[in-house]
Specification:
Blueprint (H helix, E strand, L loop, with lengths): L2 H9 L6 H9 L25 H16 L4 H13 L10 H24 L3 H15 L5 H17 L6 H9 L19 H8 L8 E2 L7 H7 L1 H7 L2 H18 L15 H4 L1 H23 L3 H20 L3 H12 L1 H4 L2 H4 L4 H11 L4 H9 L8 H14 L19 H17 L13 H6 L3 E2 L1 H11 L1
Parallel strand pairs: 1-2
Helix pairs in contact: 3-5, 3-22, 4-5, 4-6, 5-7, 6-7, 9-12, 12-14, 12-15, 14-15, 14-16, 14-24, 15-16, 15-19, 21-22
Length: 467
């Protein structure tokens, strides 16, 4: 994030209630040149599609509203309330514009977040149907109402509900809620998602590590196990399985885990469990790669292992798994590997050049590549966490008194949530499609999922004994 953006965030000290933010956004003209005569149930030809600025603004608002604590039913209720009772504190309020924007926001919301917010929430769908029938169709917005109905029908066909109305009614009667939790990730997953989902709910443990101090024969085990994995499978196969594993880890991160820099706090293991799990995986794979290199007993074999690792990183790059690339770059730059000068002298110039180019992926070049990438893509999650941390620390916070206010009167710095929503939408786009062309390998996938690494101190000890 550039300095100019940080300065602008620091000056953004306007605090508003949720309803005031919503009212202000819905009284904005998209595009600014929009005329009152263009707002009707028969839109002008140039208004047949929503303004790109409107789509972007409303998508960010939906995500930001969840980040501010509004569930999907609560957001919908606020929209309906505003539709029925326009704000009376603004004599310039254009009722026609307000209603048109509410309809547009609903269309954009349903289209982009059907799976997350609408698909299995039968109560919300029922309220929506009632609103369309009682207010839109009878209130002069028949064509727009029909457009919303067609959109919902198409969504039903493309993404059928996973919960039946009868089950929802039963759960409601027992006191549970049927609405989807806000900020939940998209439900479409890769071919390996079912196993990953079940594993992601288990208790987080420390990365798989082994220590020489506990088992003197561990190096022999590594030679027969870990190095065997690198030498028995092609770089492409290993990279593809890393894509599946890491995509599921990336997919499992709920946006609520990224609020208020939760992953930096002592409670991270409970407030940001999937962020912690992804971070542990990064360190474990990086440590495992380094351990594989150190387990080889000659300079030539260590150099071959380094070259194979770089080839895996190159394949990860081709699959747009930049997290996997930087795992291996991190292993190559760890002190235990980097200091092996004689080993590195046996690494080919081509592999050295590949590694040098991949090091740049931890810079602004990586952000440019990811911005242009088509899904599926696995970014280095640390870059997003850094930006979110800057936003959280740079934006002024509301006065302390507002923190104890009721939810109705609570104040928000919308600039902060708008910037965060921009990043969340970027993440949503990158993981919107799975790696459909890659199948889970019955042997390699579990091997990589449980690969063990020597701890850092023992890797350093072996490195010193090696060269």
């Amino acid at each position: 994030m550039d300095t100019e953006t940080l300065i602008s965030l620091g000056k953004a000290n306007k605090f508003e209630t949720f309803d005031a933010i919503l009212s202000r956004l819905l009284q904005t003209r998209y595009p600014p040149t929009l005329k009152d005569d263009d707002i009707s149930d028969q839109p002008s030809p140039h208004l047949s599609l929503p303004s790109p600025d409107m789509v972007s603004s409303y998508l960010r608002f939906v995500v930001a509203s969840h980040a501010m604590g509004a569930s999907s039913p609560a957001l919908f209720a606020s929209l309906i309330c505003l539709y029925q009772t326009p704000p009376d504190d603004n004599i310039n309020c254009n009722i026609k514009l307000l209603q048109f924007n509410i309809i547009s926001l609903l269309h954009i919301w349903i289209d982009a977040f059907w799976s997350e917010d609408w698909k299995d929430d039968w109560k919300l769908q029922s309220e929506f149907q009632r609103f369309v029938g009682e207010h839109l169709m009878r209130g002069g917005w028949l064509k727009h109402a029909e457009g919303l109905v067609r959109l919902v029908s198409r969504k039903y066909a493309d993404h059928p509900p996973t919960v039946s109305p009868s089950l929802t009614a039963t759960s409601s009667a027992s006191g549970s809620t049927s609405s989807s939790p806000p900020l939940s990730p998209s439900t479409s997953t890769s071919s390996s998602s079912s196993t990953a989902s079940s594993s992601s709910t288990s208790t987080i443990s420390s990365p798989n590590r082994i220590s020489l101090s506990n088992d003197k024969s561990i190096l022999d085990m590594m030679v027969s196990n870990s190095v065997g994995t690198l030498s028995s499978f092609s770089a492409k196969e290993i990279a593809q399985q890393l894509c599946l594993i890491e995509f599921d880890l990336f997919k499992a991160i709920d946006f609520s885990e990224l609020l208020d820099s939760a992953w930096t706090k002592k409670t991270a293991i409970t407030s940001s469990p999937n962020v912690v799990r992804f971070s542990h995986h990064f360190n474990r794979i990086s440590g495992w790669i380094a351990s594989c290199v150190l387990a080889e007993d000659s300079m030539e074999r260590r150099a071959m292992c380094i070259q194979r690792s770089i080839e895996i990183a190159q394949e990860c790059k081709l699959n747009q798994n930049y997290n996997g690339v930087l795992e291996i770059v991190s292993a190559m730059e760890s002190v235990a590997i980097f200091r092996l000068k004689r080993t590195w002298s046996h690494v080919s110039p081509m592999h050295r050049e590949w590694l040098s180019n991949m090091k740049d992926l931890n810079t602004s070049r990586s952000r440019d590549l990811i911005a242009q990438a088509q899904p599926p893509c696995i970014p280095y999650i640390g870059s997003f966490l850094t930006e979110l941390l800057f936003i959280d620390e740079s934006c002024p916070r509301p006065p302390p008194s507002s923190s104890s206010s009721s939810s109705v009167d609570k104040l928000f710095n919308y600039v902060k949530y708008d910037k965060m929503a921009e990043i969340f939408l970027h993440i949503k786009r990158l993981r919107s499609l799975p790696y459909e062309s890659i199948s889970r390998h019955p042997i390699l996938y579990p091997l990589l999922s449980s690969a063990k690494a020597l701890d850092e101190e023992d890797r350093w000890t072996i490195s010193l004994a090696t060269e």
